[in-house]
Design brief:
The chain is built from 13 helices and 8 strands. It is α/β, with parallel strands linked by helices. The protein folds into 2 domains: 82 residues, no CATH class; 323 residues, Alpha/Beta hydrolase fold, catalytic domain (Rossmann fold), CATH 3.40.50.1820. The protein has an 8-stranded mixed sheet with strand order 1-2-4-3-5-6-7-8, sandwiched between helices. A hairpin with a 6-residue loop joins strand 1 and strand 2. It is globular and about 75 Å long. The relative contact order is 0.15.
Length: 422
């Protein structure tokens, strides 16, 4: 019994230390996944701490009691801070914002910031059309593909479409990667999802990626009637690199360097944008992730010949490849690729979701983005989770407090985008 008391207490203390540890690149990538697990499973570690405390008390093990008490306190603080993270829709959408969300639409939304165990909606009646081409690369037979998720039978469509761009470090992964619980939850509220695959680095740079995002926007606007979508109610969403691409496309819909020539003059405006920890200032990301250490590494050629070549994972997230050089070499390219430089009063309503301890996207830059949006008069919501790191939403969503709190906010933002006139 004493051994179990000490084991529970020590484990909870270890998890508590991970939760409160602010990691820094590049060495911080080693304990990054354990830190994410520590936060996602914090309710479990809280129970462990209580068991260590209780068993220690029963068997007369004072160190287990003290360790269990400290570990329990750490997890309680984390849970409380995450569940109480500031979330205020009123400054952006007015004191009557709740009245614009029809009561029947609240059925599929989370009722609380943390639900404990979150059950995934039944997908059996959800309509999923996979691998639909939305663009063919000129001079080739290669097509860019998307998946379309539509509301289940019996759910009234909201008319809103979420165009989702998968996380990738701009370098790897694909559509339909770990997102099914998220999409199932959203379509249960009547929303349509366009899950987009786009070209990655080093086949293309960040500017051509932005072009693929806009091709997806144009395709959905053209085909919106087929899917019961209002072409004026499109919301871009993405995580990490693809939160960045979503912000860039939303804020600079007609910028000539960020827009394909064939879409010149096309309406590429969107109703709103959601960024899960997406970089807003590329120079700030470069500094935050200590990429000055990469100066002197061999250059990597951008081009279509890299489409099927084996990738060197060491190059993932290298901004000098993505943007075309280091900040001291091409400062104007870093500005062009930074959403924060494209803010203007006509930007669409924005939701920013990020952890305070983000290893890749500096929270200070996200705060500056939010402040600049507010100053420009753009409706903006910023949800910041204490002690939370990059990609917090990808692990164990069925129990993760930070994921569920983020989902609670997304539910209400999308409902406003669907039903409120701005």
């Amino acid at each position: 019994m004493a051994f179990m008391a000490y084991a529970f207490a020590v484990w909870t203390l270890l998890m508590g230390a991970l939760v409160f540890w602010r990691l820094q690149a590049p060495l911080g990538f080693l304990p990054w996944i354990p830190k994410l697990l520590a936060g996602a499973l914090s309710p479990v570690w809280l129970i462990f701490g209580l068991l260590g405390l209780g068993l220690g008390w029963l068997v007369g093990a004072p160190l287990a009691v003290i360790g269990g008490a400290i570990g329990t306190t750490c997890m309680t603080v984390f849970l409380w801070k995450v569940a109480q993270a500031k979330l205020d829709f009123e400054p952006a959408f007015g004191s009557d914002w709740r009245q614009h969300i029809a009561l029947q639409r609240e059925t599929g939304q989370l009722k609380r910031r943390w639900m404990g165990l979150l059950l995934e909606p039944d997908r059996s009646k959800t309509c999923l059309n996979a691998d639909i081409p939305f663009w063919t690369i000129p001079g080739t037979s290669r097509q860019l593909l998307c998946d379309i998720w539509q509301p289940p039978t019996g759910v009234t469509p909201s008319g809103l479409a979420v165009l989702f761009f998968h996380g990738s470090a701009w370098y790897f992964l694909d559509k339909d990667y770990g997102t099914r619980p998220f999409f199932s939850h959203l379509v249960a509220q009547g929303h349509t999802i366009m899950d987009v695959a786009y070209r990655l680095c080093p086949e293309v740079d960040v500017f051509d990626m932005s072009g693929d995002v806009k091709r997806a926007i144009s395709w959905m606007k053209t085909n919106s009637g087929h899917y019961g979508v209002d072409p004026h109610r499109l919301v871009l969403a993405g995580a990490s690199a693809d939160g960045h691409l979503s912000l860039l496309a939303a804020y600079a819909p007609q910028h000539p360097r960020l827009t394909p020539a064939e879409l010149k003059g096309t309406d590429l405006s969107v109703r709103g944008v959601i960024s899960f920890y997406g970089p807003s200032d590329m120079s700030a990301v470069y500094t935050h992730t200590n990429q000055h250490r990469l100066v002197g590494l061999p250059k990597v050629t951008i081009g279509p010949e890299a489409a099927h070549a084996k990738k060197n994972m060491r190059d993932a997230g290298r901004l000098d490849i993505l943007v075309g050089g280091h900040p001291f070499e091409v400062p104007e390219a870093y500005d062009l690729a930074s959403p924060i430089t494209h803010i203007h009063p006509g930007c669409p309503p924005t939701m920013l979701i990020q952890g305070e301890h983000d290893l890749i996207t500096p929270i200070t830059a996200t705060r500056r983005l939010y402040q600049k949006l507010v100053k420009a008069g753009v409706p903006a919501i910023s949800l910041e989770f204490p002690y939370t790191d990059h990609a917090f939403d990808l692990l164990l969503p069925w129990i993760s407090p930070s994921y569920q709190s983020a989902l609670y906010a997304v539910d209400r933002f999308l409902a406003l985008m669907a039903f409120k006139e701005l």
